[in-house]
Amino acid sequence: MNPLKESLKSMLFRLLPRGEDKTIDSTLDHKRTASELDRNFSEIAKRIELLTKLHASYFIDSIVLSDEKYRSDKCLTASRGQVYSQNNEDGIISKIFQKIGVASNTFIEIAAGDGIENTTRLLLDQGWTGIWVEGGKKEVESIKHVAQGPLNDGRLQLISEMITLENIDNVLINKIGFEPDYISVDIDYNTSHIWRKLFRLRPRLFCVEYNAHYPPSVSYEVSYRPDGVWEGTNRFGASLKALELMAREQDYNLVGCDIFGVNAFFVRADLCSEELFLAPFTSEQHYEPPRFSSVQMRGHSRHPNFE
Fold it and tell me: Are 128 and 120 in contact (CB under 8 A)?
């Protein structure tokens, strides 16, 4: 007997409205008031949401258990840990630095979001320093609110600009006087074009969004547009193969992707070896398909404000 399946079956049964005689007539009894119906619908919505989360968790866990590759210590895909990241990037980043070590404890995250959900918030909590780049007005206001402490004491610098090829040197690169350990790039449409400009900073680790809709052997990249934004379709960014080849030219190796098919991780070649990471370092080895519908925060919600 599978406890999770039995739990799901039990919850599905409880989704059905029930009157005293448990008949259809009783569920549609005209004596029910509008407020009672509202409460029932609200309860059903909550249970459907919980079922969706349980199904997503069960789906991802079943994938991990079905393939021995994911259970290898060299494989990063199923690394555990999600404190502030959208997916399991917190766990993957921690595992990578456990293998390659750190040097400066510094980071740069381009498209840092609202400051509550991103890939460097946990690093900041752990004493790192760095730069958040964010161009969204609502997101910038959120960062100013939730990250007052690190902004005021200098641990965090906020650059409130939309990054383009035309402004990246003046807005960001020329202002950096350190060699970062970690850089994250996730700007949806122009991600790969902006990434090319960042190789000169030589971080130990890159986290880069890829377009998992394209097969692992297909090299594809959207044409650059200064005003390019994601329009909600599968036309954005670059395929994993395109990023793999781009990275190899700059002495970086593709060492893994998150299991949801969102982000890829690239380690500087002088820090990378087959003893540490799953080889070969190709898109065919590390590609994960889009599992976006299973993305969720597992467990409790993220804590918004810094201590």
Answer: yes
DSSP, res 292: G
For residue 302, tell me if it sits in a domain. Answer: no
The CA distance from 237 to 265, in Å, is 15
Give the integer Cα–Cα distance in Å for 238 and 246: 10
Residues 193-209 as b/e (b if ≥16 CB within 10 A, e otherwise) read bbbeebbeeebbbbbbb
CATH classification of the domain holding 128? 3.40.50.150
Classify strands 129-133 and 156-159 as parallel, antiparallel or unpaired: parallel
pLDDT tens profile 221-267: 999 999 988 999 999 999 999 999 999 999 999 999 999 999 999 99
This prediction's pTM: 0.82
The type of residue at 75 is C
Is-contact 159 185, C-beta < 8 A? no
**158 and 138 within one domain:** yes
Collapsing DSSP states into helix, strand and coil, what is residue 93?
Answer: helix
**What is the phi/psi pair of residue 194, to 5°?**
-70, -35
Dihedrals phi, psi of 267, to nearest 5 degrees: -105, 140
Q: Which two tokens stand for residue 158?
A: 């906020």
